[in-house]
């Protein structure tokens, strides 16, 4: 049985919070044709208690409320809830070049997790680890790390929906955790720890990875096909490899075999990765509707420091950090990062076209037909069509047909003119 009733497949981000919340073990996470794991409910065990829907971060009513509030703030995107004093910084984990090289941006998320662990404020980090895998498998999995080495091994951004249910269910009473996640997942897990009887006695600090959108694991598989990596090869995938790059907007895509040899390593602005990403190819359906970017509920949000030449000039990467709680301010100060403060309006303007599209247009995208003139004008129709067609064609007909479809879509949408899809200066 697939998702029914209050859990909606088109809004599901495969986070597994519904399974972690179910007191009856009635939910299993099952990978669909697009390789995203979504809940499957066992009717025999289900008592209709409603906890799965209550804690689903993307339940329709919650998404609608968020979209309404996002649309209301037109032109002035809040980075913290009303009444919360947020502080923002440009920063990087100076003195740790090796760590930063393996991190997505400035290595801030990992450094804070390590500091909290070292100071014994937490005993576990819930995050994601890259895994050796092949076509049709997940390329990143949720992990609960207890040691500095385990936390360090998780650096980087993994562009895939992550099922956190096993990780959450493995936590023991009284656990004190730091968790990284995309805004949707952080929202859900935060509520779970605040209100669910099983998690209420645990402690959670949250770190949101500011997010434009996510893609299904098919994205990495299709890209491996395009780069002619052998069908049966096993590899780790890193779309933010920093080997030899000239600036922090020019990452490589890297597929590495178990013995460390590179099966593909090339600049992503030159090898087609960026075009694929920006077109929303293989985007998760829920991400096309998502009205969240900063995750104002998180204790801290971290994003790439993009937008100014001097910010990306250092190829090791820098981060923009928004801190919303006293405890995180203390941990941040204890890390002794290299920092410079940022004004809220400056932060709120970052990736502006993306924000306008994602937040200002949120209600239009949710309430009106995807074929409505407004949704055609704002690029939503094209985005949904590209995302759906690439996912569907790849699942049913494989890479060659998908490449043809993608080419046709690209030509049709450009019409020989400059594309209108909201862009930001660098890819996510
Ligand atoms: C899908 C996605 C889209 C993003 N889009 C944008 C964007 O549009 N603009 C922008 O500025 N930033 C975006 N980011 C955030 C950015 O890529 C970095 O994650 C962020 O700047 C933190 O970098 P860091 O060097 O401080 O983290 P690191 O020190 O590299 O640590 C990152 C931590 O996050 C964990 N992690 C990695 N991937 C995931 C995941 N999918 N779910 C949960 N935990 C994970 C890692 O295990 C690690 O613990 C996105 C991230 C993701 C995953």
* Helical residue percent band: 25-40%
Rg value = 20 Å
How much β-strand is present in the residues? 15-25%
Number of domains: 1
Ligand catalogue: flavin-adenine dinucleotide
User: Mean pLDDT, as a whole number?
Assistant: 93
Number of discrete helical segments? 18
Mind sketching the topology for me?
Elements: H1 17-21, E1 27-31, E2 37-41, H2 51-55, H3 60-72, E3 87-92, H4 97-102, H5 108-118, E4 124-130, E5 140-145, H6 148-152, H7 165-169, E6 176-181, H8 183-195, E7 203-209, H9 218-226, E8 236-241, E9 252-256, E10 262-267, H10 273-278, H11 285-289, E11 300-304, H12 309-312, E12 319-323, H13 326-335, E13 338-342, H14 344-348, H15 352-360, H16 362-367, H17 373-377, H18 380-414
The protein binds flavin-adenine dinucleotide.
Keywords:
alpha+beta, eight-stranded mixed sheet, three-stranded antiparallel sheet, 18 helices
Walk me through this protein's architecture:
By secondary structure, this protein is an alpha+beta fold. The chain has one domain (55-428). It has 18 helices and 13 strands. The protein has helices at 17-21, 51-55, 60-72, 97-102, 108-118, 148-152, 165-169, 183-195, 218-226, 273-278, 285-289, 309-312, 326-335, 344-348, 352-360, 362-367, 373-377, 380-414; strands at 27-31, 37-41, 87-92, 124-130, 140-145, 176-181, 203-209, 236-241, 252-256, 262-267, 300-304, 319-323, 338-342. The chain has an 8-stranded mixed sheet. Strand 6 (176-181), helix 8 and strand 7 (203-209) form a beta-alpha-beta unit. The chain is globular. The chain starts with 16 loop residues before the first helix and ends in a 14-residue tail after the last helix. The mean pLDDT is 93. It binds flavin-adenine dinucleotide.
